[in-house]
Design goal:
four-stranded antiparallel beta sheet; globular; 196 residues; 9 strands; alpha+beta; single chain; Cyclic Phosphodiesterase, Chain: A
Length: 196
């Protein structure tokens, strides 16, 4: 099964962000994007990819130990950004150093079990939309000459958004449910972050 480790923001934070993002859907370029659904909104700590059933018990023990060594911390969703013209995201503010440490600890736990994780530097974000046309090299033309949507104006439109602070208090091992339409994620295991 395809797995990843994540923090799921509280429903109040999701609703605040949804209100800010709603106006982006009215922009002309928004129609060409693949928008993520609210039920799937999360902060990825470590993407694990395909994990074999026999590796799950050791992985879960390692993640539980990694989470137990961390503490709950404060975050908020605010601002926006993009990965080139591939993905549009909401930024994360607050104790992002604690978030990065937690991401590193969960990646290390997975690596000890022999499950490789993404080696790109950690960027705290919540993915909102992906381009239907993926730019490759210097050419941003896709099928039938279609062009990738310029995500810069959409990211800039989120610059003024600042949600209410909330406490990151649990870590989830999530898996992707296959099927048509927007991706559906389900929590396989949850570990609380100890209080400070």
């Amino acid at each position: 099964m395809k797995l990843f480790v994540a923090i799921v923001p509280p429903q109040s934070a999701i609703q605040e962000l949804a209100s800010a993002v709603r106006s982006l859907h009215d922009l002309p370029q928004a129609q060409a994007l693949r928008w993520t659904g609210l039920p799937s909104w999360h902060l990825t700590l470590a993407f694990l990819g395909q994990v074999e059933d026999e590796d799950l018990p050791e992985l879960e023990r390692g993640l539980a130990a990694a989470v137990a060594r961390q503490s709950a911390f404060g975050l908020r969703l605010g601002g926006g950004g993009r990965f080139g013209d591939r993905a549009l995201w909401a930024a994360v503010q607050g104790d992002t150093a604690a978030l990065a440490r937690l991401a590193g600890a969960t990646s290390d736990a997975a690596n000890r079990v022999g499950i490789g994780t993404d080696d790109r530097p950690f960027t705290a974000h919540l993915t909102l939309a992906r381009n239907s046309v993926v730019p490759r090299g210097g050419d941003d033309r896709g099928p039938q000459g279609s062009r990738a949507v310029d995500l810069a104006p959409l990211a800039a439109a989120l610059a003024g958004f600042s949600g209410e602070p909330w406490q990151a208090s649990a870590v989830h091992l999530m898996h992707s449910q296959p099927g048509p339409g927007p991706k559906v994620y389900q929590s396989r295991a949850t570990w609380p972050l100890p209080g400070r």
